[in-house]
Design brief:
With 295 residues, the chain is of the alpha/beta class. The protein is built from 13 helices and 5 strands. Helix content is 53%, strand content 8%. The protein has a 5-stranded parallel sheet, with helices on both faces.
C-alpha cells in the first residue's frame, strides 16, 4: 500500500497523528524543507508524536519516512498515462471506444512495470528459482489464478511449482516447506494480515521469499529476500476491474518463467515439446497457423 493511501486511511492513528498525516499530505514535495520539529510545531503536536507516526507506518524514523515519501511522490508524478487507471472507461463510451481505452491501459501498465524492473533484483530472483528444489506460491483471490499459468509453464520444463489454493491451510502448509525450496508471495498492498504471517513464518524458517508487491516499502517487502514491483497505479478499492494490478502480476510471473527458461534454452524447449507431445496428444487443429509444425 502506498504511503499516501496509509496517510489517508489513518488506521489506528491518534488525534495528533491524524493531524500530522493531514499536514504531510498537504505538504507533498515540500516536505523536504521540514524537520521533525517543524512538523510538530505546525501541527501543535510533538516531535515524539511525529516519530511515532513514522514508525507506525513502518519506517525507522522521520528521515527514513521522508526519503521514501519523496520517492513515492516522484513515482506518482510519472503516473499520468493515456487513460484513468481506476476508471479507464465510463458509461458514455461505446463498446469499441471502451476496448481501445483498455488497450491503452495495458500499454501504460506494461511500460510502467518495466520501468520498475531492475536487473539486480531480477538476477537475484532468478538465482533463487534456479537453485531451488520447488517453488511455493502464496496469495489470495485472482493472483492465485494468474499463478496457475506460471505453474503450468514451469511444470512443462520440469520445474515444480506448488500453489496453495485452500486459504485455511496456507498457514499450515508454509510450515511444511522443506529446506531448499523457496516461496513467491503476491500481495498488492503487502500488508494483508495472513500474507504477513506467511512471510514471517518463511523468514523464521529461513525460506527465501520473492515478493511481488507494490511500489515503496511495505511489511512484505521488508520480510522478503527480493522484491519485484508491480505497476502501482490503481487504488486499492476504488476501481472497476483491477486491470492494471492483474496485468502487471501476470507480466512479472511470465518474466520469471522466461529468464529461467533462458538458462537452458534448448533443453527447456525440448522438454516442453516432449511433454506437450506426450500429454496433450488429443489436442488438434485444422488451422495451419496453430497446428503442430510436424503434422
Amino acid at each position: 500500500m502506498l504511503i499516501i493511501e496509509k496517510l489517508n486511511l489513518k488506521e489506528k492513528m491518534s488525534e495528533g497523528e491524524e493531524s500530522i498525516a493531514d499536514f504531510v499530505l498537504t505538504l507533498g514535495k515540500d516536505i523536504h524543507k521540514y524537520s521533525t520539529r517543524n512538523i510538530a510545531e505546525a501541527t501543535y503536536t510533538s516531535a515524539p508524536t511525529v516519530i511515532r507516526l513514522c514508525k507506525k507506518l513502518g519506517f525507522k524514523g522521520f528521515d527514513d519516512f521522508k526519503k521514501q515519501f519523496l520517492k513515492e511522490i516522484e513515482y506518482l508524478d510519472q503516473q499520468y498515462g493515456k487513460v484513468d487507471v481506476n476508471f479507464p472507461f465510463d458509461a458514455s463510451d461505446t463498446m469499441m471506444r471502451a476496448a481501445h481505452k483498455l488497450s491503452h491501459l495495458y500499454e501504460d501498465t506494461i511500460h510502467d512495470s518495466m520501468s520498475l524492473l531492475h536487473h539486480d533484483d531480477l538476477q537475484k530472483a532468478l538465482n533463487l528459482i534456479k537453485y531451488s528444489h520447488s517453488i511455493h506460491v502464496f496469495s489470495y483471490g485472482t493472483a492465485l489464478n494468474l499463478a496457475e499459468s506460471f505453474k503450468e509453464k514451469m511444470l512443462k520444463i520440469g520445474k515444480n511449482v506448488i500453489i496453495s489454493n485452500n486459504l485455511n491451510y496456507q498457514l499450515y502448509e508454509v510450515t511444511c516447506i522443506p529446506k531448499g525450496d523457496i516461496a513467491i508471495i503476491i500481495s498488492y498492498s503487502g500488508e494483508t494480515v495472513n500474507i504477513i504471517k506467511l512471510a514471517e513464518i518463511c523468514q523464521k524458517r529461513t525460506i527465501p521469499i520473492i515478493a511481488i508487491t507494490s511500489f515503496g516499502e511495505n511489511t512484505l517487502s521488508q520480510l522478503s529476500s527480493v522484491k519485484l514491483t508491480m505497476s502501482t497505479k490503481e487504488n486499492l478499492y476504488h476501481n472497476i476491474g483491477d486491470f492494471s494490478t492483474h496485468l502487471s502480476t501476470h507480466l512479472l510471473l511470465d518474466i520469471l518463467y522466461s529468464v529461467y527458461f533462458l538458462q537452458n534454452y534448448d533443453e527447456n524447449y525440448q522438454n516442453r515439446i516432449q511433454k506437450s507431445s506426450d500429454l496433450e496428444s488429443l489436442r488438434s487443429s485444422s488451422n495451419p497457423i496453430i497446428s503442430y509444425g510436424d503434422e
